[in-house]
Automatic annotation (TrEMBL):
GO terms for molecular function: alpha-L-arabinofuranosidase activity. It catalyses: Hydrolysis of terminal non-reducing alpha-L-arabinofuranoside residues in alpha-L-arabinosides. Belongs to the glycosyl hydrolase 51 family. It comes from Plebeiibacterium sediminum. PANTHER family: ALPHA-L-ARABINOFURANOSIDASE 1. The keyword DNA repair does not apply. The keyword Glycoprotein applies. This is non-reducing end alpha-L-arabinofuranosidase. Keywords: Glycoprotein, Hydrolase, Signal. Its EC number is 3.2.1.55. One of its GO terms (biological process) is L-arabinose metabolic process. It is an enzyme of class 3 (hydrolase). InterPro entries: Alpha-L-AF_C (IPR010720), ASD1_cat (IPR055235), CenC_carb-bd (IPR003305), Galactose-bd-like_sf (IPR008979), GH (IPR017853), Glyco_hydro_b (IPR013780), Glycosyl_Hydrolase_51 (IPR051563).
Amino acid sequence: MKHNVKITMGILLFFMATTLKIYSQPIQIDVDKPTTKIQPTMWGIFFEDINFAADGGLYAELVKNRSFEFAKPQMGWEVEKTNPDSFHFIITNRGTENPQNPRYASVKLNDNKSSLSLINEGFRGMGVKMSNTYHFSILASLTKGSDIALNVSLLDSNGEDIGSTTVDIQGEEWKKYEVSFVCSKTDPKAKLKLFFEGKGMVSFDMVSLFPNDTWKNRKGGLRADLVQKLADLNPGFFRFPGGCIVEGSDLDNRYQWKKTVGNVEDRTMIVNRWNTQFDHRPAPDYFQSFGLGFYEYFLLSEDIGAEPLPILNCGMACQFNTAEVVPVDELEPYVQDALDLIEFANGSTDTKWGKLRAEMGHPEPFNMKYIGVGNEQWGPQYFERYAIFEKAIMEKYPEISIISTTGPFPDDPFFKYAQDELQKYKAPIVDEHYYRAPQWFFDNATRYDNYDRNSYKIFAGEYAAQSVEVCSPDNTNNWQCALSEAAFMTGLERNADVVYMCSYAPLFAHVEGWQWRPDLIWFDNLNSLATPNYYVQQLFGVNSGTDLLSTKLENKDVIGQEGLFASSVWDADSKEVIIKVVNNNKEAKSTTLVLNSAKRFSSKAEMTVIGSTDLDVVNTLENPKNIVPVTKEIKVSGKQIIIDLDPYSFSVIRVKQK
């Protein structure tokens, strides 16, 4: 009797345990019948200089307003007036003599007891590290008969000296002086102090301070931790320089690539168009030095293995601002800029722009394959200009693929007008943007399922789920947004025969200097963090595969049935099946992955999961690992894999062929 009770209790406990788990129907993956090739450019990155992404961010320069070219020339600088009668501090504008870099500063000291200190605040402070070497440089000239010493030092947030050196300025000729020193303390809010002492007059420009530990230790280079995060996404392409930066608020303020190459001191600074764009986040100290210019962009694309995708102005300023256009009969300089950029990227060293590329350090071509005409313009005025660009580019460079646009929205009347126009032009690849609520992303996982397969290919050039609403300063990079993007991306991947490129936007944001949110990567002066959205993008990027596989639940694509979204690929290089599954349920689910194949598979698979029952969870600099992917090993039984899907989770399963 007791024996029977034990058996009954065991059956009851087993029944209770199994009924607490919700089971899904099996998901069938046809491994041996790939449906289309996955483009190597499928998952990429979008860069725009918004949120202090370049100066104060990716570009590792620590000095703000280093050449005194801001609208207020002394912005970022503080003059210490210990004895005001003994010195003069002057800003000279030599506009006609040097229009690229017209301003420079001068200090005049009246007697041998005179001194003057200039302090630069950096970009919300300067992030410096103990034991790191810092490279200081300055262009300077002494007037005849002057005898002035320059001491350079880093000050910590308490004003204490944490590293210093001297610069011996000699002669009337403008020369570049370079010295290095080691910092004795880590501080996110350091400042740079220039201490002038002696008698006479010294003039100076291009005051610069760079850490030694830049990406690949390049002199005057990029911030290593931020570049590493880009490389870790395994991007197939790199879009640059934007974004609305391309257009400018007016045409005078548009991005002009030719002003971003050559010697750094000869690049023309302009105000950043996000300077006063939003009343809730004004940034009066936001300018573009173009230290991160088109050469640095091409070099970085090469470094991280991404195809460069430059976007150029098409003779139209931002239509949300001035809607200024250049007349069609005056468009030639804009078109020539596009042709010359292709020459700069790909031309031989015998050409004008190919020679400049070689002089900058890269004689080999960058082999650029794509170019974008306009950012997110709309209406007839865009297409009459696009037609002129297309004709000129195709006549000279027929091998280049041109990216066009449907405007800023995915479903308004201008979008529908653009669709019709682009069919006439037989556009190869078209840029679409989606900034919508998370539910929109879940609902639009089917967006391209019934798309005309004979039409143009899609570049999902900017997308990000908005937790509150577009342009809201209260948007967050929470898990609900990231999960909805994962579901949407399974739909993009499932339609890889028409979707060729995809990128989240914006990419970077300084925690103290942002204008727009959400953003993929956040940083301060010393640290950076990956958002949940970053990890979703990364899991697609490093698991992109080479061939799309049919993935079905009850003979239908997995698009929300039982709260599941899924897509699968075959990776011909690693000989693996890669399955991506989103569980948009508050309960855990168990399902079986069935690999329909004549192949044999390993008895173990790798499963990477990111998820949380708290849909509002975010990562912060204080707690950067609130939600991160976790990888574990799971069993494979022949051609079947039983997996448990956590509530509100995104899982990637990799199974190797034997």
